[in-house]
Structures are given as C-alpha cells and as structure tokens.
Design a protein that fits this description.
Distance between the termini: 52 Å
Shape: elongated
Number of helices: 1
Order of helices and strands: EEEH
Number of domains: 2
Strand order of the largest sheet: 1-2-3
C-alpha cells in the first residue's frame, strides 16, 4: 500500500467508529470538497488497534519534526552568532 497524505492546519479531519459484520472499525476522513455529496472524500480505516498504532506513529513523527526544527534553529543561530563575531 502506498499512502501519500499532506495535512495542513486547514485540513478538515473527522473520525468515526462503527461495527460491521460483528467487527470493529475505526475511520478517519479528510478533504471533503462537498460535504453534502461526499465528493472528494478520502478515508483511512482499519481495526481500532491498527488505527491506534498509526496515531502513535503520527505523534512520534510530529515530535521528531519539532525536534529537528529546533535543532536547525539552534544551528542557524550559532552560525549567525559566529559570523557576527568575525
């Protein structure tokens, strides 16, 4: 499976859980172009266990991105301080 998903602060996310044929499913929807017709619907679904694992990995990725941004900011500040001294 290949999933390419770009989320921004403006992305509309919705969650739903349901039972189908006696099995539990969790679902995340995003990108409604027209909520009345559900055109442009995009869905990620799976068992609750797999969706929780996906959520944990998404949180881990967000933390790593924030740490990388902080590291890059420190490097840039150190480089700027070093160039101003010279």
């Amino acid at each position: 499976m290949n999933l390419n998903l770009h989320l921004t602060d403006a992305t509309d996310l919705r969650a739903e859980g349901y039972v189908l044929d006696g099995r539990l499913f969790a679902e995340v929807r995003w990108g409604f172009l027209d909520p009345a017709t559900r055109l442009g619907d995009s869905v990620l679904w799976g068992t609750p266990e797999m969706m929780r694992q996906f959520a944990e990995l998404a949180v881990q990725a967000a933390i790593q991105a924030e740490e990388e941004a902080a590291w890059q900011a420190r490097l840039a500040a150190a480089a700027a301080a070093g160039s101003q001294v010279a």
